[in-house]
Amino acid sequence: MSSSIDVVAFIIPLFLSIILHEIAHGWVALKLGDTTAKRAGRLTLNPLKHIDPVGSILIPAVLFLSHAGFMFGWAKPVPVSFSSLNHPKKDMGLVALAGPLTNLTLAILFAFLLKGFATYTSINTVSSFGISLCQYGVLINLSLCAFNLFPLLPLDGGRIVVSLLPLSWALAYSKTEKYGLLLLLLLLIGFPLIGEEFGYNLDVISIYMSWMMKQFLYLFNYIL
User: Fold this and answer.
1) CA–CA separation, 191 vs 195, rounded Å?
2) pLDDT at 156
3) Per the omega criterion (within 30 degrees of 0), is the bond before 166 cis?
4) Which of 21, 68, 154, 204 has an alpha carbon 20 to 30 Å from 188's alpha carbon atom?
5) How many CB atoms lie within 10 A of CB 109?
6) What CA–CA distance (Å, rounded) separates 77 from 26?
7) How many whole angstroms from its chain centre is CA 191?
8) Catalytic residue positions, numbered
């Protein structure tokens, strides 16, 4: 399969997965009393409403071209007014969980499609494209699910942690959000460089992602 077709097979599930992740946040928020995402026109499949140049294009492209073992990215965050939710603290966790659960569901669907392509189709250009698309669909969605569940604000995992903690602890943990992106960059870039300098593996994100992907593999072996 040509490289251009391979890129298309990668882009389709990437955009679909990132967009549906954000729509899921907004849709669950709407069901729980917050209409912010709906009023902002974010409950739509129109990619122009969701695409972030860095998180949706640049970062995934770098990981794709470098043949990284995992994939992550992000769209423009869907606006959610947590104070408008019926039960703000509890519902915050449900809204946050909706995105990763959507990606896990998509990964399972792509896995079943992949099994179908591999089992029931003859090898030709169309089936090869379908197999590649489904393979990327599984990888992208499992990676998005795992990465977003990392317990650091403002990631979904951090919001889930806040929703589960006792109120006083939740308030204290919420204060770390203003440092969240800096901490994430430190974990993604700073720690690995420091570890390389002193001969230690401090690539926390890669270790976490590898562990999560193994757990997903166990799950998929059970399901399929």
Assistant:
1) 6
2) 96
3) no
4) 21
5) 14
6) 9
7) 22
8) 22
> What is the reported pLDDT for 94?
97
In this prediction, residue 69 carries a pLDDT of: 59
Mean pLDDT, the chain, whole residue set: 88
- The phi, psi pair for 105, rounded to 5°, reads -65, -45
- Please tell me the predicted confidence (pLDDT) of residue 95: 97
Looking from the CA of 142 toward its CB, the CA atoms found within 13 Å total 26
Cα distance between residue 150 and residue 156, in whole Å = 7
Rounded Cα–Cα distance for residues 76 and 202 (Å): 29
AA identity, residue 65: L
Q: How many Å apart are CA 41 and CA 26, to the nearest integer?
A: 10
How far is C-alpha 48 from the chain's CA centre?
18
Would you state the torsion angle of the CA atoms of residues 153, 158, 160, 163, taken in this order, to the nearest 10 degrees?
-70
pLDDT for 77: 84
Please name the helix (run of DSSP H) or strand (run of DSSP E) that holds residue 111, with its range, or none.
helix 88-120
Under 8 Å between Cβ of 177 and 158:
yes
Q: Is the dihedral of CA 40, 46, 49, 51 positive or negative?
A: positive
> Residue 150 corresponds to which amino acid?
F
Q: Is 22 exposed, middle or buried (0-12, 13-18, 19+ CB in 10 A)?
A: buried
CA-based Rg of the chain, rounded to a whole angstrom?
A: 18
Query: What 3 state SS string does 169-217 have?
Result: HHHHHHHHHHHHHHHHHHHHHHHHHHHHHHCCCCCHHHHHHHHHHHHHH
- The first and second tokens of residue 55, run together, are 């998180």
pLDDT-flagged residues of the chain (< 50): none
